[in-house]
Protein 1
Amino acid sequence: MFKGILIQKDAQGYRAQLQEMEEENLPEGEVLLEIAYSTINYKDALAITGFGPVVRRFPLVPGIDFSGTVLASKDPRYQEGDQVLLNGFGVGEHHWGGLAQRAQVQADWLLPLPKEFSPWQAMAIGTAGYTAMLSILALEKFGVTPEQGEIIVTGAGGGVGGIAVMILAHLGYRVVAASGRPALRDYLLELGAVEIMDRALLAAPGKPLGKERWAGAVDVVGGPVLANVCATTRYAGVVTACGLAGGMNWPATVAPFILRGVTLAGIDSVQAPTQLREEAWRRLARDLDVERLQGMSREISLSEAIPVAKALLEGSVRGRVVVNVNK
Ligand code: NDP
C-alpha cells in the first residue's frame, strides 16, 4: 500500500482526495519508483481542482513532476537505487503522476538526477524551472543578448516567472518583472528584477503597436498581456509564450511580426525531446542560484497539496511549492 492523491470523476462528480492505494493498481511501466518529492505547477492545480481539462483518464494520480529512487527496472539504463527525475510526458495527465509515494513509468520519460541538485531542489525547479530555462534557451536561439536591452517577464510572482527572473538576472539581463501583486515588490527585486511593472498596465486590450521597449520577453500569462508585450517589443525582438494564466485567447494583430520582425517562440515542456531537456537541465545546473531557489520555495505535505492547488489558482501562492510525499 502507498499514499497518494487520486482524482475521480463519476456519478458523485469530480473530486481529488488523499487515500491509500495498492501497488498492483499502478499503470504499466518499465520502471517502478519510490517518490521523494513532487510539486504543484499551474497544470497540477488545474488537474486537482478540475478547473481545466488536464486529466484525460480516471481514476488518475496527478503530479506532472517527481524526483525519486528506482525500486525495480526492466530497462538496462536504470538500476535499483538510481536517483531520477521526471517532467511531463503526459504523466499526471493520462498516466499516474508524482503526487503519491510510488509511480511506474516508461524509462524514456526519466532523466538521471543531475549531480548538482538534491531531489528536493530538482522539485523546487520542477516543470516550472525547466520551462523557464526552455524559454531562455529560445531567447538565445533567436539571438537575444543582455546588451540588446530590457527583458520583461510576466506572471513573475509565480513559478515559471520567478525562476525566469532569477536566471535572466544572473545572466546579466536587465529584467522588468510584471506582477499583479504589489506586495511582491521586495521579493521580485531580491530575485534580481530591476523594475516591477503593474500587471494592470498590460491587462487591457491595447493598440496593435506601442512604443518599442523590450529586447525580449518571457510570457507565462497569454491573453491581452501577451498581445501587449508583442506590441511593445522592439524591432527584431523575441517573445516566448508558454502559458495561459491570463487567458487562452489573445486580442492581437500581426503588426509586431510583419512590421517589426518580432519573433514569437512557442514553448512546450511536455513533449520536448530528451536532448533539449538534457540541455535545459545542464543550463539550470550552471545558471541557477540554488540558495535563491531555496528562498523562493517552500515545502508542504501531501495532505496540503489539495488546498495549496486551490490557493495557486486564486493567485495567492508565491514562487515554488515542493511536496514531500512522505510527510
Ligand atoms: P503559477 O500559478 O505559479 O504562476 C502564474 C502567475 O501568473 C501567477 O503567479 C500570477 O503572477 C500570474 N497570473 C495568474 N492569474 C493571472 C491572470 N488572470 N492574469 C494575469 N496574470 C495572472 O503558475 P506556473 O508558473 O506553474 O505556470 C505559469 C503558466 O505557464 C501557466 O499557464 C502554465 O500552464 C504554463 N506552463 C506551461 C508550460 C508549457 O510547457 N508550455 C510548462 C509550465 C507552465 P503575478 O501575481 O505575479 O501577476
Protein 2
Amino acid sequence: MRHSSPLEIWKFGGASLADARGVERAAGLIAAHPGPLVVVASAFGGVTDLLLDGARAATAGKRDEAARAAATFLRRHREVVHSITPRGTLRRTLLAAIDAAAREYRELSAAVGVLGHVEARASDLLVSRGERVSARVLAAAVQVARRRATYVDAVEVIATDGQYGGAAPNLAVTSRRARRILGPLIETRTIPVVPGFIGYAPDGSITTLGRGGSDLTATVLGRALRAARVVLWKDVPGILTADPRLVPDARLIPQLHHREAAEVAHYGAKVLHPRALIPIADTRIVLHVRSFLDPNQPGTEVSARRTSIGYPVKAVATVHRQAVLTVAGKGMIGVHGIAARTFAAVDAERLSVSTIFQASSESSIGFTLPEPEAERGVRALRHAFRDELANGLIDSVSARPGTAVVAVVGDGMAGTPGIAARVFAALADGSVNVVAIAQGSSERNISLVVTESDVPVAVRQIHSAFQLSKIGGGRPISTPRTDVVMLGFGRVGRALADQIAGANGESDVRVVGLLDRSGYVFDPRGLSRRRLLNLAHAKDAGAQLAAIGGRRASSAEALTTMASHAVTRPVLVDVTSEETSDLLRAALGHGFHLVLANKKPLAGSAETCAQLMTDAAAARRQIRYEATVGAGLPIIDTYHKLVDTGDRVLRIDGCVSGTLMFVLSAITSGAAFSEAVREAVERGYAEPDPREDLSGRDAARKAVILARLMGYQGAAPAPDDLVPRSLARVTLGDFMKRLPSLDAEWAARVRREASRGRVLRYVVTATPRSVSARLTSVPASSAMGALEGTRNLVAFTTRRYRTEPLVVSGPGAGPEVTAAGILNDIHGIAGAVGRGFMPRLLEHYWRLKIS
Ligand code: ADP
Ligand code: ASP
Ligand code: MG
C-alpha cells in the first residue's frame, strides 16, 4: 500500500462517544482529516456496563431488569440516530440494525436466564452489540459529514485465541485479514469504521479482548496495517502522572517510551488497556493519547523515543480490587520447583497475575490476582499442591481480598538510587501500611500492595513525594536541597546571595529566584554564582530585574510561576521593608517556608500577625525571623532554647537599634548629634531616611516582635521619638540641613547624664503583657552603658536568670550579619522540616484561636 500521507488508526472511546454530540464531534474530526484513516469505535459510554448488568440480572432471574437494559439500549441508540441522520434510507437501515441488536440481546438474555449463569462465551456475545451498533452509527455520521466511510465488522478482521472474556489477538492472521479486507477500502479513500473490543475465536464465535479492549483493537490494526500512528481519543488530555480521579493535580506526561506506557497500562491505569502496547512495542508506530474535548492539544506521545531520562519516575498507577494469594510453609525452604508449579497452576487457569513477591526466606510465595478470580486461584493451587498440603510441606494456601497494587513507573528508575526509599518514606508519612513489595527486575517499576482503602492516600503521597504535579518533577533528590527565592534584592539580599553562592556548591542551599518591584528572575536549576554577581552589580547600579534579563510580572504572578516548578523545600526570604503580609500568605499557600528579615508583617496588628501564623500552621510551613531582631545575633533562638528547656522568660530588655546605638554612643564620646547621624547614614547603618530609626519606630517593631514571642497580644508601643515635631515632615534634604540645630541640646543632655555617672540609651522592654521603646539613661558601668558602636544587647530575665539576666550581645546591624542570620534560619528550616517543628510563636496564637 502506498499513500501520499501515512495511515493513521483513530480510536474513539466510550466516554467520547457519549451522545449524539459526541458522535457528531468525532465524525467532524474524522471528516476533517485529509489522510487515510481506519476508525475504531467503542460502545457508547456506559453501554457495555449496561449490557453486562442486564445479562447478570437475567441469570439472577430478574427478567424485568434485563428487559429494561434492552429498552435503554434501544432508546439511547435510536435517539442518537434520529439526531444525526436525516430522514431516509440511511436512518431506516440504522434503526433496523439497532432494533435487531436489541431484540437479539433480549432473546439471548432470556436464554442465559434459563441457564442460570452467564458463561464468558455468552457474555461476550451479549456485549458485542455495544460496539457493533456504535461503529455502524459512527460510520453513518461520517457519511453525513461527507466523507466516504463504511462499517466493517471486527469479526471479519480480528482473529483471537478464543479466550472468552479476555482473548489475545492472533497477530499473523489478523494482519493478513486486515490487509485483505481493509487494504482495498483504504486504497479507494474509504474510511473503514470497525467495532473495537471484539474479535472472533478459532471456531468463528465472538470473543472480546477484555474491558477497555478497543485500545487493543486499535494497536493491533496499527501493526497489521503498518500505520504510522495510532490515536486514542479520550476524555482526558492524555496519559497523566496518576489517575485524575485520585490525584486532582495529576499532570499530563508529554512523552513516554513504549515500555513505560506498557507498565502504566499493565498496572491498571484505565487510560490504556493492559495489553494495548504489546502489538506496537517493537515497532516505530507512534501512539498518541489525545483529548477529545480539546483536539488542538498535543496529548501524550508514546513512542520508541527515550526522553527525559533525568526524571526517572513518570507515573503512579493502580490496580484496584486485588487479592493477595499466599502459598506458605516452612517446608518450602530450599525445595525447588514450588514457584514454578505455583505459576503453572495459575497459568493453567488463565488467571492474570499482576505482581509477584517472595520473601528471601523462601517460606512463602505471594502474588496478586483480581479479587473475583481469587477463589479460583486458591482452588487451583490447593489442587496442585494437594500432596504437599497433606504431608505438611506446605502449610497453607490463602487469599487476602480487599487489596490493591500501586505501581511507581518510569524508565530511568533503573540504576537511580534512592527511589524506593522515597516511596516508602512517603507512605510512612501518610501512615500507609504496606502489605507487600515487589520491584520488577527491569527496575522500571516498584509495585506494592496496600489495602484498598489506603489507595487514595498512598497514591497522593507518592505523587507529591516525587512532585509529579510539577514541571520537571519525578527526580529523586539524593541530598535534599533547599531552594531559596528572595523577595527584594537590596543590600541584605545581595549579601545573602553572596553567602549562599560563596559556599561553592558545598551547601545544599541554592538561590532559584529573585523578585523585585519590576519582575523576577527564575531558574529552577539554581542561579549560578556568576549570574547572581552580575545581577547584584546591575542592581547596585540602580537597574531593576525586569530590565536585566528578568521577566516583568507582579510578585504574586511570579510566585505562582515558580511554584509550578519542581523546587524542593522552597523558602521565600523577605528582605524588603514593605507591608508584604498578603504576598507571604500567598507564598505559604504555594508551599513556601518563610524567612523574614522584614519586620512589618510581624509587627503590624496582632490580627495580621496571627493570620500569618495560623496560615503557616495550616499549610504546615515554617516561619523564621531571627534577622528581624539583632540581625545575626541568636536572640529569638535563645528565647526558644530557654523555653524548650523548661525556663520561663519574664521580661526582655534590649538595645536593639544599631543606628540609635551608634548615634547615642557617638554623642557620649563627644561627637555632635548631627555628625553622628550623618555618619550612621554614610556607613549604611541607618535607613536612607534616618528618621525611620530616630523616630524609634524600627526599635518599637523589634520590641513588639519580642513581646509576641511571649504571648503579648496587643499593638506596637508608641516609641519615644528623637525627631522633633518641627522636623518630622520636612524633606530629607531639609532635615539633614537643619540637624545641627539640635546639637546643643543633645550635648547638654549628655553632659547632664555624665555628671551622674550615666549615659543615654534607647531601650526596649517586652513582657507578656506590655511593651515599650524609650530613650532613658543607664549607669555608664552597666552592660548597656558599656555598649559601643552599633552593638546590640538583649537581656532575658527568666525564672532561672532572675537576679542576673542572660545577656546576648554583639554586632546588631549591617548587611553581612543580617544575611548570616537569614542563612542560619534557612539551614534551620532544612533541618527541622520533617521533624514536625512548629514555630514557638504559634502556640500563643493557637491558644488564642482555640480559647
Ligand atoms: P476510553 O473512553 O478511551 O475507553 P477510558 O475511560 O478507558 O477511556 O480511560 C480514560 C480514563 O482513565 C480517565 O477518565 C481517567 O479517569 C482514567 N485514568 C486512570 N489513570 C489514568 C492516567 N494515568 N492518565 C489518564 N487517565 C487515567
Ligand atoms: N466497551 C468496552 C468497555 O467498556 C471496550 C472499550 O471501551 O474499549 O470495556
Ligand atoms: Mg477504555
